[in-house]
Design goal:
505 residues; alpha/beta; GMP Synthetase, Chain A, domain 3; four-stranded parallel sheet; 32% helix; globular
Length: 505
């Protein structure tokens, strides 16, 4: 018997064949039967381009039903999907293509000419275009291709996806996720969040990371739910469609921006059953303010690229502001110090996790993978927190200085490497500062070379050429030296204290 994740999906697709799977902003809808057919056509098209089980398919495309169908097609043929953030620069994309060595790279129409020389240089067999509409390019080719009914048999440990996550060394790591990693997590969430017949998911997330592509869509597919598919988060659009939905999954920024609209309130949420938040910490103040305004208590959960969802506040039971709830069924969570010694209730340490949701390691980084696992199989998340007596997890920060801005992970080392390479920069330190809208904002503290005059405008322009926009520092500080401890390590905690109340942040 095959453990291909698509087998699970197809059973639901056929059960709800005539039901709308997606409803788009302009009112266009795609039934589950039509989605299954489109995925089968993309699967056939992949086959004609030589894609075989285990081959990588990289996509950097705009959100669309076609993009989802192409992902599903990769599952069908046993290929490994690698979705890329559309904000990544050409230089960043070049690294991913060289590291992943895909059979096919699928890009947006406006980037095709830019990527042709890169693809030729790296030996990628095919460069294809996928736009948001079905009338052209790769999407049109799929519609003209007879569907491939076969679903490639897969084992539980066969890879379904690789998602890149930045590393503290500045070198992004490809987290390898298996069919079972994704299936087990989706089935658990379907039950834990009490999905029910008639649920409608309002989807305003991007589909290049775990939250939007896997958590949101997988649970909807397994429930046969209709998905109202918004191109992006927009307060007016979300308010309009909330009245037709029962579930919204978002990042804290979604909820803060809704509250910024004075007209938003209980009337918008009359049919809603569940608001879920993740990808970044939510402040207790925001949690309480949303409940006061709407009467709904947001369900906050905790997960990672490498693990999918790990913990969740309960559907039935207290959803405590500032906590991320309990370990999901079948998943074990513990707290340990840096040496791996287990800590007791209330003691703060690093969160470690074990379960069927935990990834298979980092692509082509065997040594790094070994470093991140304990001998008994627990994955060291790098997040810092404590467990209460009853097992409820509270996160208190992040090891290795990870910044989460608007739900996106940003590692300072990558930005520091970019800044340090600029003429006139002696050294830099990048920190996260509190931000009312995005949760955290990136701030850069720069020490110029002696006698050099640095222009902030020039630094900003140089960074814009190298890094995706969401990684750009919001504010720059120029100083004579960075604070260090006796061992010479930069004391970023002192920088956060110094600049954390700055109006510029």
């Amino acid at each position: 018997m095959s453990d291909n994740l698509y087998d699970l999906f197809q059973a639901r697709f056929r059960q709800y064949r005539d039901k709308p799977a997606f409803i788009l902003t302009e009112g266009t809808s795609w039934s589950y039967g039509a989605l299954d057919d489109l995925a089968a056509r993309f699967a056939a098209l992949l086959g004609t381009h030589g894609v075989r089980p285990g081959d990588r398919v990289v996509m950097q495309v705009d959100k669309s039903v076609g993009a989802v169908a192409c992902y599903l097609a990769c599952l069908r043929v046993g290929a490994i999907i690698i979705p890329l953030n559309t904000a990544y620069t050409d230089a960043e994309v070049a690294y991913f293509l060289e590291d992943a060595a895909p059979r096919i790279f699928i890009c947006r129409p406006e980037k095709y000419a830019d990527f042709q020389p890169l693809v030729a240089r790296l030996g990628v067999a095919h460069l294809k275009i996928l736009g948001p509409e079905p009338g052209a390019h790769w999407w049109a080719d799929a519609l003209a291709t007879p569907p491939q009914e076969r679903i490639e048999p897969r084992s539980k440990d066969d890879l379904a996806a690789i998602l890149y996550t930045s590393g503290t060394t500045g070198k992004p790591k490809g987290a390898m996720l298996s069919h079972d990693n994704l299936a087990s997590n989706a089935l658990t969430l379907l039950d834990y969040w009490a999905f029910e017949e008639g649920d409608v998911l309002l989807h305003a997330l991007p589909i290049f990371h775990v939250h939007g592509l896997f958590v949101a869509l997988h649970t909807a597919f397994l429930n046969g739910s209709t998905v109202i598919f918004l191109e992006k988060f927009d307060v007016s659009l979300v308010r309009r469609h909330l009245k037709k939905a029962t579930i919204l999954m978002g990042v804290p920024t979604f909820y803060s921006r809704l509250l910024d609209d004075p007209g938003f309130g209980r009337a918008d949420c009359e049919g809603m059953r569940l608001f879920i938040s993740g990808s970044a910490p939510m402040t207790a103040q925001l949690h309480r303010a949303f409940e006061e305004r709407t009467g709904h208590c947001i369900l906050e959960r905790y997960g990672m690229t490498e693990t999918g969802m790990i913990t969740s506040n309960p559907y039935d039971g207290a959803r405590l502001a500032g906590t991320v709830g309990y370990a999901l069924p079948g998943i074990a969570v513990r707290i340990a110090d840096e040496a791996g010694t287990l800590l007791g209730a209330g003691e703060t340490g690093v969160v470690e996790v074990k379960g069927p949701n935990v990834f298979k390691g980092y692509w082509r980084m065997a040594e790094k993978t070994a470093e991140e696992f304990r001998a008994d199989g627990y994955f060291i998340t790098g997040d810092v927190g404590h467990l209460d007596e009853d097992g409820r997890l509270t996160l208190e920060g992040r090891a290795k200085d990870l910044i989460i801005s608007g739900g996106l992970n940003i590692y300072p080392k990558e930005i520091e490497a970019c800044l340090d390479a600029l003429p006139g920069v002696r050294e830099s330190a990048v920190i996260g500062l509190p931000d009312a809208d995005f949760g955290e904002a990136v701030a850069a503290v720069i020490v110029p070379e002696g006698g050099e005059e640095l222009s902030e405008e020039g630094v900003r322009a140089a960074v814009a050429e190298k890094l995706a926009r969401f990684k750009h520092p919001k504010v720059y500080y120029f100083v004579d030296e960075l604070p260090r401890n006796s061992m010479g390590k930069v004391q970023k905690n002192l920088l956060r204290q110094r600049y954390g109340t700055s109006p510029a942040a």
